Structures are given as structure tokens and as C-alpha cells.
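User: Please fill in residues for this 313-position structure.
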């Protein structure tokens, strides 16, 4: 009798954990509107800071004619990107990665820095599962790192072997370019800028699970990770920007606001310490998540221009 009761309890618990895994996959990983983001206080900012880069970027994008680009990922997805050549570029190109639930055209304020201040070509892709790209899941930067190798290849084909490339990402985009940094990159990739990226998918989702639901990482994150492996092809544990920057040889600039509570500020210190390649950092006092540019535009733009100037000629 007791064995039957224990077995029933085990089955119920296992079923509940499995259900939770599917639930959190649907919330965080599956391609769908992320309504919870609008409700999180960690992403809110008080005027006049809120929305500066969005409005400025959208206005700038509206004044330029981008070329629509399509490439195919290694696993057969159609990836959309938007390319704006500059007459001053001489092969210098910035590839700019957007954040979670965003799209390439959201990155106009950052593209403007490279196009106007530095005279670069700019390429702003839609990540898989976002915007005009296909895919029914979000990779948090891990499968996207392979996609960025494809975008680098496109840039080399467009600009030739004399190309010089900088990768710039914000939030999930920062994780994407950091995860790309640990791959075998062509020598034309000269620098990486990572703005408010997380150390790993496991660490970020564990943090958000506690912040949003007051639930411990175990057993819910492992359960969602297993579901993600079946449905999207990767485990959370392998998707680590921290491990990738340890292998990086390309210079990396780390940027983070010290008031960021969505991707905790301490993650930048972990990433900076782990990086063995040439590196620099910019800490923007009082900036929340993704608001370093909005909070101190002069410092942000000045640091980008300085850092790019050291490695791209």
C-alpha cells in the first residue's frame, strides 16, 4: 500500500515538474509575444530617459534605404537582415545584434553611431524566431552564434578580404556576440562590443525564475532545459557566454549600467574577469537594463569611437 502511495506521489511530482518545463518553455523560449516584459519593473525607466534610443533610432532608420538580405542558417532557417552601405566604409562594417523579443530595425540608434560617426557599413539582422526571420524558438544567443558566422561570411563576400568587422550587441544581442567570440573567427573580425549581456542562459533564467515566480532553479530550469533540447536543439547549460569569452581572441568592450536589475550588473564583472583577450569596459552610473546609451550618450558614443579606433583602421 505504502509503495503504491509513494509511486503515485512520485508520478504526480514528475508530472508537475514536466508540466512546469513545458510552461516555462512556452513563456521564455517559444516564439510568441512576450507580454510579461511589459509588466516587469526592471525594464521601466523614468522620463526623459525612457525611449530616447528607440525614438531616435526609428527616426534615423526611416531616413535611410536599407537593402533587404536573406541567408539560410545551417539548420535551414531563412534569416533576414538589413544592410546599409557607406561610401566612406572601405570595407569596415558593423553587424549589430538586437535583444530578446526585438528586431533588427530596433537598433537604429546604435547603427547611427557606426554609420555617421565612423563611416561604416551597417548590417542589422533579425535573430532567428524574431522579426522577418523564420524559426519557432529563441536561442538566447547560442544557436544564433552560428547564424552570426553566416552573417560574417556574407559581409566578407560583400566587402572582400580587406573587410574589417565589429560585432555589437545589446542584452540578448550582447550574449549572441559574446557566444560568437569563442568560435573560430576570420581575422577580419576585429572587435566586439557587448552591452548588458548575461553570463549564461542557465544563470539568467534561474535569476528570472526567482525574480518573477520566487521559485528555485532546481528542478524547473533543468526540466525546461530538457524540453528545450528536444524542441530547439540545445541545453541551457551549454549556452554560456562566460565559457565563450574565455576562448575569445578578439578584443571585447563590455558595457553595463550599474542600476541594471534585469541582467544583474555583477554579470559584467564575471564576464570581464573571464575574458583573456584585449578588453575594456564602460560602466554607466544609474543606467537600467539596455539604457546605457540613453543615460549617457556622450560617454557611450565616445567609448565606441575610441575602442573601434584602436582595432579598426
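Assistant: Residues filled in for all 313 positions:
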Amino acid at each position: 500500500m505504502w509503495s503504491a502511495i509513494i509511486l503515485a506521489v512520485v508520478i504526480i511530482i514528475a508530472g508537475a515538474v514536466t508540466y512546469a518545463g513545458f510552461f516555462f518553455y512556452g513563456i521564455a523560449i517559444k516564439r510568441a509575444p512576450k507580454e510579461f516584459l511589459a509588466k516587469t519593473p526592471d525594464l521601466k525607466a523614468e522620463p526623459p530617459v525612457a525611449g530616447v534610443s528607440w525614438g531616435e533610432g526609428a527616426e534615423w532608420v526611416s531616413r535611410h534605404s536599407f537593402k533587404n538580405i536573406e541567408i539560410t542558417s545551417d539548420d535551414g532557417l531563412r534569416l533576414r537582415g538589413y544592410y546599409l552601405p557607406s561610401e566612406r566604409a572601405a570595407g569596415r562594417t558593423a553587424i549589430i545584434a538586437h535583444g530578446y523579443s526585438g528586431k533588427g530595425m530596433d537598433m537604429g540608434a546604435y547603427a547611427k553611431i557606426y554609420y555617421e560617426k565612423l563611416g561604416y557599413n551597417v548590417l542589422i539582422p533579425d535573430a532567428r524566431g524574431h522579426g522577418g526571420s523564420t524559426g519557432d524558438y529563441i536561442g538566447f544567443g547560442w544557436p544564433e552564434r552560428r547564424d552570426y558566422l553566416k552573417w560574417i561570411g556574407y559581409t566578407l563576400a560583400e566587402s572582400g578580404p580587406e573587410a574589417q568587422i565589429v560585432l555589437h550587441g545589446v542584452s540578448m544581442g550582447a550574449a549572441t556576440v559574446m557566444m560568437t567570440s569563442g568560435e573560430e573567427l576570420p581575422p577580419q573580425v576585429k572587435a566586439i562590443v557587448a552591452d548588458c549581456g548575461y553570463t549564461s542562459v542557465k544563470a539568467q533564467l534561474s535569476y528570472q525564475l526567482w525574480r518573477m515566480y520566487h521559485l528555485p532553479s532546481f528542478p524547473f530550469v533543468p526540466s525546461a532545459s530538457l524540453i528545450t533540447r528536444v524542441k530547439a536543439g540545445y541545453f541551457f547549460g551549454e549556452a554560456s557566454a562566460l565559457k565563450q569569452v574565455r576562448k575569445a581572441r578578439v578584443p571585447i568592450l563590455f558595457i553595463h549600467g550599474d542600476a541594471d536589475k534585469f541582467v544583474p550588473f555583477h554579470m559584467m564583472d564575471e564576464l570581464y574577469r573571464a575574458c583573456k583577450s584585449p578588453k575594456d569596459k564602460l560602466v554607466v552610473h544609474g543606467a537600467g537594463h539596455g539604457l546605457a546609451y540613453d543615460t549617457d550618450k556622450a560617454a557611450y558614443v565616445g567609448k565606441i569611437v575610441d575602442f573601434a579606433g584602436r582595432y579598426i583602421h
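For context: The beta strands are 67-72, 78-84, 92-97, 121-125, 164-170, 189-195, 252-257, 279-284.
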